[in-house]
From TrEMBL:
InterPro entries according to UniProt: HNH, HNH_nuc
Molecular function via GO: endonuclease activity; nucleic acid binding; zinc ion binding
Species of provenance: Sphingobacterium zhuxiongii
Residues covered by the HNH nuclease domain: 66-118
Protein name: HNH nuclease domain-containing protein
Pfam families noted in UniProt: HNH (PF01844)
Length: 167
């Protein structure tokens, strides 16, 4: 692992392409494919090598739009936990950022529907340092349909009154 990476930060400030893919002394492609550079090639063996390395760099740096774009190619917006398609899908760190899952490649990302993502976040907040709560299949979705129960009307009146006071 490269020392400039911060596994606990969503965005790798100051990380450059050169940090991840330095020019190689043995005259092979900087992407690591092993192909020998020839002719006018100075760093990359092919356009594909350069393009893939750039994408990898952007993912590790924490570029959300690139992460979402690449994850969508893999999962197509389908939740990896419940299998449901959600147009508001979330790009989730499998090992969370607070547990050192940042600065990662696409391997540490998964698509979650907004429901499953909310549950995972809740579970993580409740039990610190435990990303496997979610994986263990603990069902945290058993909430009453109305959080206010039979006192809903009382509650909404109360909210209205409060709103007036605040305004
Ligand atoms: Zn290459
Ligand atoms: Zn889901």
């Amino acid at each position: 692992m490269i020392s400039v990476l911060n596994q606990y930060s969503r965005y790798q400030r100051g990380l450059s392409m050169e940090d991840l893919f330095p020019k190689r002394e043995d005259n092979t492609c900087a992407c690591g494919c092993g192909n020998l550079l020839y002719g006018r090639k100075r760093k990359w063996y092919s356009q594909t090598c350069m393009h893939n390395s750039l994408t990898q760099f952007q993912i590790i740096k924490g570029d959300t739009s690139v992460i979402r774009e690449e994850l969508f190619k893999l999962d197509g917006g389908f939740c990896r936990s419940c299998g449901v398609y959600d147009e508001k899908w979330q790009a989730d760190h499998i090992l969370s950022v607070s547990e050192g899952g940042a600065a990662c490649s696409l391997d540490n990302f998964q698509t979650l529907c907004s429901c499953c993502h909310k549950e995972k976040t809740k579970a993580l907040n409740r039990i610190p340092n435990s990303s496997d709560v979610f994986a263990s299949g603990l069902n945290l979705s058993k909430f009453p349909l109305s959080p206010f129960g039979t006192n809903y009307n009382t509650f909404s009146k109360h909210v209205k009154r409060r709103t007036v006071i605040i305004a």
